[in-house]
Amino acid sequence: MVECQEAQLVVTVDKDLFGTGKLIRPADLTLGPDNCEPLASADTDGVVRFAVGLHECGNILQVTDNALVYSTFLLHNPRPAGNLSILRTNRAEVPIECHYPRQGNVSSWAIQPTWVPFRTTVFSEEKLVFSLRLMEENWSAEKMTPTFQLGDRAHLQAQVHTGSHVPLRLFVDHCVATLTPDWSTSPYHTIVDFHGCLVDGLTDASSAFKAPRPRPEILQFTVDVFRFANDSRNMIYITCHLKVTPVDRVPDQLNKACSFSKSSNRWSPVEGPTDICRCCSKGRCGISGRSMRLSHREGRPVPRSRRHVTEEADVTVGPLIFLRKMNDRGVEGPTSSPPLVMLGLGLATVMTLTLAAIVLGLTGRLRAASHPVCPVSASQ
């Protein structure tokens, strides 16, 4: 029997649960996903009771057009008694629901609404799914083979899957390349820093964000492939810190996507006012990715704006594997040519001696044929 009270539900279970005369043990009964135990009772009682709050024991709340429905279940999970290894009753799960009308008061107190607008609570109520993928050169599909040659360009696509959220705009806050999936290790190379400045494009690379975006929740960018000097490993991992803002918020110095153009010698954003990228030249747009790495490594507290909350996440792609070009072997030509020359001379000498032996053998046979030996008679 179930009583749906104002703030709790009370469940009363007959110990002869199956109607067979075989009584169940209270210890074998629990309520809800959290396995709430029954109230204490005397062994002589013929029933087992539960009394739990509507939001306790993992109860599930569903809202329909006309009612609030709290769902849970009663679980009978028998265990062997004492040292026995047998059971005489079955496992059973009994679903339980309490329905409360949405219209009207459930108490003598007036209802005071406590909810806030959906747009305000969307980030704290649901998880966002962030991703970072390697793409083909035409951005049409994900790259299946993560192999590159030095001089190639990696196409990276950051994305957030918003589901039923309000429209969001994705930003790549900072990115770092390392030799292992652990972004706090050394050596490392910073690709994006200062809250969205693609600093890798400042050097001899042409790395840049792709503009315009295909959609607000997607941000694409290219990185010229590189490898770490003085290290024989031919693979790297790229870790990016991704975050989102409402799509109607104007990009600013802390939420931007800026690329450096060598032809114009200036920074330019994917969207938003052009002056939001000025701080990229000075390197003062807030806490940099390098500062974040140092604070993480030294165990210092991470600022609230950088903690792993639902609207931001660290995502890693890799490994990116680098293959040596075939014509790179030409660099080693001068060091490998002397052995090849000596080998060629040796083969030529052997062939010459072989031909000379053949010629001498043929000459001897011809001389023997032109001067026959006369047979000696028996009388002599």
Automatic annotation (TrEMBL):
InterPro entries per the UniProt record, alphabetical: ZP-C, ZP-C_dom, ZP-N, ZP_chr, ZP_dom, ZP_dom_CS
Membrane-topology descriptor: Single-pass type I membrane protein
Domain ZP: 3-265
Keyword Transferase in record: no
GO molecular function: acrosin binding; structural constituent of egg coat
Membrane-spanning ranges: 340-362
Any one Gene Ontology cellular component term annotated for this protein: egg coat
Record-linked Pfam families: Zona_pellucida (PF00100), ZP-N (PF23344)
Post-translational modification: Proteolytically cleaved before the transmembrane segment to yield the secreted ectodomain incorporated in the zona pellucida.
Keywords: Cell membrane, Cleavage on pair of basic residues, Disulfide bond, Extracellular matrix, Fertilization, Glycoprotein, Membrane, Secreted, Signal, Transmembrane, Transmembrane helix
GO biological process: binding of sperm to zona pellucida; egg coat formation; positive regulation of acrosome reaction
Subcellular location: Zona pellucida; Cell membrane
Known role: Component of the zona pellucida, an extracellular matrix surrounding oocytes which mediates sperm binding, induction of the acrosome reaction and prevents post-fertilization polyspermy. The zona pellucida is composed of 3 to 4 glycoproteins, ZP1, ZP2, ZP3, and ZP4. ZP3 is essential for sperm binding and zona matrix formation.
PANTHER family on file: ZONA PELLUCIDA SPERM-BINDING PROTEIN 3 (PTHR11576)
Quaternary structure note: Polymers of ZP2 and ZP3 organized into long filaments cross-linked by ZP1 homodimers. Interacts with ZP1 and ZP2.
Family stated for the protein in its record: Belongs to the ZP domain family. ZPC subfamily.
Domains: entry comment: The ZP domain is involved in the polymerization of the ZP proteins to form the zona pellucida.
Name under which the protein is recorded: Zona pellucida sperm-binding protein 3
The organism of origin for this protein: Bos indicus x Bos taurus (Hybrid cattle)
